[in-house]
Amino acid sequence: MNKRILVVVENIDVNKSSGAKANVALIKNLVLCGYKVLVLHYTLKQIEIEGVECVAIKEIRSSRNFIASRFERLLRYKFKIDIHEYLEKIWGFSFTLFNDRNSIIEAIKKIDFAPDLVFTLSQGGSFRPHHALLKLSEFHNKWVAYIHDPYPRSTYPRPYDWVEPGHKRKWEFMKDISKKAAFPAFPSKLLRNWMGSYFREYLEKGIIIPHQIDNSLIDSKSPNVKGWDPLNFNILHAGNLLGARDPSKLLNAFYQYLQKHPESTSECCLYFVGGINKYRTLFEKFRSKTKKIKFIDEALPFYTVYKMQQQASVNVILEAKSEVSPFLPGKFPHCVAADKPIFSLSPYYSEVKRLLGKEYPYWTEIDNEKEIFSFIQKCHSDWKKGNNQLNRPDLKEYLSEFYLKEILDKLMLSL
Q1: Has residue 69 got a pLDDT over 90?
Q2: Of residues 2, 32, 13, the one with CA closest to residue 216
Q3: 71 CB-near residues (< 8 Å, 6+ apart)
Q4: What proportion of the chain, given as a percentage, has pLDDT over 90?
Q5: Same domain, 176 and 123
């Protein structure tokens, strides 16, 4: 009889966030591993995943928490009175979160499904499924609590760290998970070690389940994006440019390459797809110099962006200038699946650099313009010779359902 896995997940709308994309890829690969999977999701609309029973959790709309949350929103948006920080200093979390937690608990109690493992998956700075499972002790001995990023925000590496309202309660929440979850899980080894430096139980019990390659996406339709020509030498950065992900050295290195190799201008492009946030003025400056730097500051469908990654000549992973980056970016499996060179513009101590290996030729820090220039020169030369593959079957295996099954079979045996 197939082992049964209940997945309680915040969001499975792949067009909304990188977290949702990673969630769906993991769910699909759980099915490929041969498990019977039931997904309870809080996307607040019905979404289907092939081969999986997906149940949309209904929001409780008649509770004190719901009424209080709507009153707080009314004050904030209509009367411009913002009290959420004051409330979080008292309670640690919002009334909305408490109501969502209770909605998830109620949905779990209604299902007729006896799981061997229970996964909780979240996104961003939100851990609603984890809040719910903390209240359901009957599942703690089979709970895989997936922690995708550091939490609370004070545990982030610089320059992303800050102390939030209700910091102490948030810290206690994460401590509770470390003690009560049978299998705290992390997408990266560095993240497990990082969080284990704050909560020792994560270091003692934590397991690594990397973000997954979703092979069902590889045959997605060609992108209908104005100006995109897959026959060009396209360097692609897909994803929002958060405040500390400064693209200026990459932009300048590419522009200088065109200046020194004008004969390459007709076939070289640098693309940014996703929100550019505070860098709009910088992009406009470079766009006035050359039409070969393009940014698409709109929400393209995930399948379109994925196909662009497949067709790109180079995919870029751009991380903040920092001493360490324990994150495994959600797009890392997309870049590996594309089998094209990856420009890893990351700190020396980063999960991306660790996985690519010490000998990988296209790693440097985000502000090393000279090295980035040399990467462009080398990759463009190789591309013209028809030598343009990442060629890392070891990484494809690591991010596959086969390695995932090895991990989970060991968990099943320990139950």
Answers
A1: no
A2: 32
A3: none
A4: 76
A5: yes
Residue numbers of the domain that contains 145: 4-212+400-414
> The CATH number of the domain where 257 resides is what?
3.40.50.2000
DSSP string, 328-374: --TTHHHHHHHTS-EEEE--SEEHHHHHH-TT-TTEE-TT-HHHHHH
- Is residue 47 within 8 Å of residue 56, measured between CB atoms? yes
Please indicate, yes or no, whether residues 147 and 286 belong to a single structural domain of this protein: no
Domain count, the chain: 2
Instruction: Verify that 337 and 380 share a domain, yes or no.
Output: yes
Euclidean distance between CA atoms 85 and 65, whole angstroms: 16
Q: Does 406 lie in the same domain as 368?
A: no
Q: Which residues contact 303 (CB under 8 A, 6 or more apart)?
A: 217, 220, 221
- Residues 360/333, Cβ–Cβ less than 8 Å: no
* Residue 235 contacts residue 312 (beta carbons within 8 Å): yes
Distance between CA 251 and CA 101 in Å, rounded? 44
Q: What is the structure's pLDDT at 321?
A: 92
Claim to verify: residue 87 and residue 207 sit in the same structural domain: yes
How does pLDDT run across 240-279, given as a tens digit for each residue? 887 789 999 999 999 999 999 999 999 999 999 988 778 9
**Co-location of 191 and 128 in the same domain:** yes
Residue 218 dihedral angles phi and psi, to the nearest 5°: -60, -30
DSSP helix/strand/coil, 396: helix
Same domain, 24 and 69: yes
Say which residues have a Cβ less than 8 Å from residue 31's Cβ, sequence separation at least 6: 37, 51, 52
Q: Whole-prediction pTM value?
A: 0.94
Q: Give the list of residues 6+ apart from residue 178 with CB closer than 8 angstroms, or none.
A: 184, 199, 200, 201, 202, 205
Is pLDDT at 316 greater than 70 in this prediction?
A: yes
**What is residue 74's predicted lDDT score, i.e. its pLDDT?**
75
**Angle, alpha carbons 247-384-249 (nearest 5°):** 15
**Same domain assignment for residues 89 and 222:** no
Tokens in use for 77?
């948006």
Q: Dihedral through CA 112, CA 114, CA 115, CA 118, nearest 10?
A: 60
Following DSSP, what letter does each residue of 169-233 receive, concatenated? HHHHHHHHHHHH-SEEEES-HHHHHHHHTTSHHHHHH-EE------GGGTTPPPP--TT--TTSE
What are the residues facing 235 on neighbouring strands? 270, 314
